[in-house]
Amino acid sequence: MSTKDWIEKDYYKVLGVDKKASADEIKKAFRKIARDNHPDANPGDKAAEARFKEASEANSVLSDPSKRKEYDEARSLFGGGVRFGRPGASGGFEDLFRNAGGEQSGLGDLFGNLFGGGGGQRRSSSRGPRRGADIEGQVKLTFEQAVEGTTVAMRTVSDQPCSACRGTGAKPGTLPKVCTACEGTGMTTSTSGGVFAMSEPCHDCRGRGLIVDDPCAECDGSGRGKSGSTVNVRIPAGVTDGQRIRIKGKGAAGQNGGSPGDLYVDVSVAPHKLFGQQGNNLTLNVPVTFAEASLGAEIKIPTLNGLAVKLKIPANTPNGRTLRIRGKGVRRKDGTMGDLLVTVQVQVPDHLSDSAKEALKEYAEKSGQENPRAGLFGG
Fold first, then answer.
1. Domains 3-122 and 135-176+212-269 share a fold
2. DSSP assignment of 270-282, as one string?
3. What is the C-alpha separation between 329 and 326, in angstroms, rounded?
4. Alpha-carbon distances of 326 from 287, 322, 323, rounded to whole Å
5. Count of H-run helices and E-run strands, the chain
């Protein structure tokens, strides 16, 4: 935020509150403005969009006690009425610093750094290079595609409002609600030492400022229409369900020579009927008989690529023990492979013949096994 914003703009007037307004009064005033002027609820209304942005900027300062204190002190210091003059004109903010301590005194840099930019940044032209906007999309993968990596063609999201929901992102006939985490701003702010503030998109609403309970089927809740263009995206091996990956430079084109934005892809992975995933390892539950677990055995088990491998079950293997087959898991970033973790599940027969029952009774008598439940009664 520039020095000009802190000194010239009356954020209390923007929100329509008194300078002594409480935090609750500021919050209530902003939420009303956000609800009435949110761009998603007023598609194409530039005045409402400008009003929303202005109120969001005011709220980001006045809702933070430390930033509000700095803002009040800055306006008190300069009277809240200093105006930035034209380049070369007298009486402007730059002249105030020069008169106070000379051009080389560093006062301009001091306040510029405090409020978010040095003197060179204040003089930068608005016609300079501008980075392109970030765009987002969704892909649905099979379990095998997620483990092995794949290239998918996906449609990007345009900046135009969705025609079905008119930009709200909600199912036609319903409305989104204001995000309580960011209070509709789409941004959350954290401070360090009471001076520097860092803002980032809200994690709850992903920067939209609104929460959609019943999303529009046409735009999947994004509020933006589907563009006709597609982009090939390389999905790395080992992605998991719900993961968001960033594809650098695949967003909207920059302006005036600026770099392109990034593409953010939300990944949805279908579950596998046999295998699961733990980081770079695959998991598999394998049933074995009581005899195999007791006496030991060598069995064949499947792998994700369809080829069977042999697994040695040691004698006296208890139910639930996990055995490891190295190199049959998920490919890591360095090219090495994770492992396949096999969990043994001892199966009890559904039916026993009379001879089998007699054999088991004889086994129970001859095994000499102690009562496994003795510890439950203090034995």
1. no
2. PPPSSEEEETTEE
3. 8
4. 20, 13, 10
5. 11, 15
The residues, any chain, with a CB within 8 Å of residue 362's CB and separated by 6 or more, are none
Structural tokens at position 15: 């929100």
Other beta carbons within 10 angstroms of residue 312's beta carbon come to 10
Topology at the third CATH level for domain 135-176+212-269: HSP40/DNAj peptide-binding domain (2.60.260)
Percent of the chain with pLDDT over 70: 78
Which phi and psi (to 5°) does residue 24 adopt? -65, -40
**Average pLDDT of the chain?**
77
**Spatial distance between the Cα atoms of 60 and 57, rounded to a whole number of angstroms:** 5
Superfamily holding 275-367: Urease metallochaperone UreE, N-terminal domain (2.60.260.20)
N-to-C CA span, the chain: 72
| Domain 3-122 coded CATH 3.40.50.1370 | no
Q: What is the pLDDT of residues 102-146, one digit of tens each?
A: 443 333 333 333 334 444 444 444 456 778 778 777 889 999 999
d(CA 188, CA 200): 6
- What residue ranges do the domains of the chain occupy? 3-122, 135-176+212-269, 275-367
Tokens of 122: 């204040």
Q: Are strands 263-269 and 275-278 parallel, antiparallel or unpaired?
A: unpaired
